[in-house]
Design brief:
A two-stranded antiparallel ribbon has the order 1-2. It has a domain of about 200 residues. The chain has 14 helices and 2 strands, in the order ααααααββαααααααα. It is mainly α.
Length: about 300
């Protein structure tokens, strides 16, 4: 029986890790910076939230929320190769999130510099004749804030333990450090204000680019059975998006989306454990591992 459990866990782990292995390891050199706590550090709420498998749902939710802003969606549609290289884009986004969450300060700064360099080239005009630039503080804030709100929302609904309002506010406040380094504005400092800023934003609306992005997210061509698990995660993400933003992109959650999402994340958590990037960051900074936490062992950053 033990061998069977180990076997299915290995298969699930290999499949999940394979989806995110299309970019260089963002923490490949992290042990070269001993004692460096990075941007957030061992006692942060960020390390706890970002180490859990609920981030899979959070990442999908962020993409849905980003599609509800026509100018952000236009920038993605006009300049991204997500249709031709979806796993590459997914891996690059995951690498950025991992580096900024768990990296040493030199790794955080390198990830931010790469994003800012890429954003300078993303300019154009949306379908409603509004000029956009990915470097503008307001549009960059939509992308950054949607990520922060989405990882928090996913953790609240699908995380292993409830998170209280004080810790939710701590997480949002911690993330303003990253937003400030990116040069984005505004940066709401409480969970309530962040959620309200996104849900009530005046620029939200339908767009051809947003519709294309949602169609791609909903019908991504992954092989079976990965596709089945992906669709459950996608529906679980949709179920946490504010109603006004769902209407903007023309989606609604399926029946029992939250229930199936909890079940799917529970299976993934059992198979994968917690992020090896969290374990690596703890070791690099000289902090002990939390009791009762099983970290995933990979050929990457853990040792």
């Amino acid at each position: 029986m033990t061998g069977r459990r180990s076997g299915w866990r290995s298969r699930v782990t290999d499949t999940a890790v394979g989806l995110f292995s299309h970019a260089p390891d963002p923490l490949a050199d992290t042990f070269g910076y001993p004692g460096d706590p990075g941007l957030f550090g061992p006692d942060s709420v960020t390390w706890r939230i970002m180490g859990d498998t609920s981030t899979f749902i959070g990442g999908l939710r962020a993409l849905v929320v980003q599609a509800a802003h026509p100018e952000v969606a236009a920038g993605v549609g006009d300049h991204s190769n997500y249709r031709d290289d979806p796993l590459g884009r997914l891996s690059r986004t995951a690498s950025y999130v991992t580096a900024t969450s768990y990296g040493s300060m030199p790794e955080v700064e390198a990830a931010i510099a790469a994003v800012r360099t890429a954003h300078r080239q993303i300019t154009g005009v949306s379908h409603r004749d509004v000029a956009y630039s990915a470097s503008s503080p307001g549009l960059a804030a939509w992308v950054h804030n949607s990520l922060v709100d989405s990882f928090l929302a996913a953790h609240r609904v699908y995380g292993p333990l409830p998170i209280n309002e004080a810790d939710a506010d701590r997480y949002v406040s911690e993330q303003t450090r990253l937003g400030s380094m990116l040069g984005v504005s505004p940066l709401p400092e409480t969970a309530h204000d962040l959620h309200a800023w996104l849900a009530d934003h005046p620029d939200v609306g339908p767009s051809p680019a947003g519709r294309d992005a949602i169609l791609f997210l909903a019908e991504t061509g992954l092989p079976l059975p990965t596709r089945v698990a992906y669709r459950l995660l996608y529906q679980a993400a949709v179920a946490t998006v504010p109603t006004r933003l769902r209407h903007a992109v023309g989606i609604r959650p399926g029946p029992a989306a939250r229930i199936s999402g909890r079940m799917t994340i529970g299976v993934l958590r059992s198979a994968l454990g917690y992020s090896p990037a969290w374990a690596a960051a703890l070791e690099r900074s000289g902090a002990p591992r939390p009791a009762g936490i099983r970290f995933r062992t990979t050929a990457g950053v853990t040792r």
